[in-house]
Amino acid sequence: MAAKMIVSMDGVAIKEYALEKERMTIGRKASNDIVIDNLAVSGEHAAIITILHDSFLEDLDSTNGLVVNGVATKKHFLQNNDLIEIGKHSLKYVNDQVSKTSAADFEKTMVLRGPVKMQAPAPVEIAEPNPGFTQTQIIANKPATPKAEQTDKLDAPVATAQVAVVQILTGPNAGKELELIKNLTTLGKPGLQVAVLAKRPHGYFITHVEGETFPLLNGQPLNEQPHKLNDHDLIDLAGVKMEFYFKS
Predict the structure, then answer these.
(1) How far is CA 124 from each of CA 68, 106, 161, 166, rounded to the nearest angstrom?
(2) Pairing with 194, which of 135, 153, 223, 224 sits 20 to 30 Å away (CA)?
(3) Can you tell me the distance from the alpha carbon of 90 to that of 8, in angstroms, rounded to the nearest whole number?
(4) What is the distance between the alpha carbons of residues 212 and 113, in angstroms, rounded to a whole number?
């Protein structure tokens, strides 16, 4: 059974929403997946990202913000019976599935900057961590790994000890590496294009979570479904090209 949100006002349940999509938005506009018609709610207030049995909540720069279990937050790993307050409405997160992920497994979004003319190369920028989140680890330069011939590995399980890496290929940060040591890592530029890389027992998967256009994988646009990553896949995300590969 999919996780769900129960929307209430003054202690009275109004409607239930099953979290059946990878990305669902909450807001006042009718185009949102969860519509709350109240002036205290922004047009697009927040988003819920769901990958398998795990969900996290992210504020979309709303006017009045988010409060989860009485604490103001911008990004929160959702756990069963969490209570979200938006204006006068309450949303209860219900998930009876057993999750193997903890809040500490979520990386902060790594903001990927493109080249800037007439300026010195900017460092990779990582947002300040909120409680329960860890910063992305950046490893020093490494020569780019050549593109290898693609093989179909969709059904091949990945050994848990095998470490995957994303290497930036273009822009001022070209050559830098990001080890995918956490279960979930978000990459991209908020407001433009963001994707989640998920480490699962049968491999690593990329899922588009924010932006009107989808990232490219080996030159082809992704869709709304998670896509398994193969060794030496090329990703084009937020105008930055990068390569996914396994460390030997």
Answers:
(1) 30, 18, 27, 14
(2) 153
(3) 5
(4) 18
Q: What is the pLDDT of residues 166-181, one digit of tens each?
A: 988 887 777 888 888 8
Q: In sequence order, which residues have a C-beta less than 8 Å from that of residue 205 and are 6 or more positions away?
A: 51, 197, 198, 226, 227, 228, 229
Question: Sign of the CA dihedral 184, 185, 186, 187?
Answer: negative
Contact (Cβ atoms closer than 8 angstroms) between residue 171 and residue 114:
yes
Place of tokens 């300040």: 128
Residue 184, both tokens: 């979930």
Closest CA to 235 of 178, 167, 186, 175: 167
State both tokens at 56: 């996290």
| DSSP state letter for 135 | P
Please tell me what DSSP assigns to residue 25: E
- Structure token pair of residue 32: 């949102």
Q: Decide: residue 1, CB within 10 A, 0-12 exposed, 13-18 middle, 19+ buried.
A: exposed
Burial of 246 (0-12, 13-18, 19+ CB in 10 A): middle
**Residue 194 — very low, low, confident or very high, per pLDDT cuts 50/70/90?**
confident
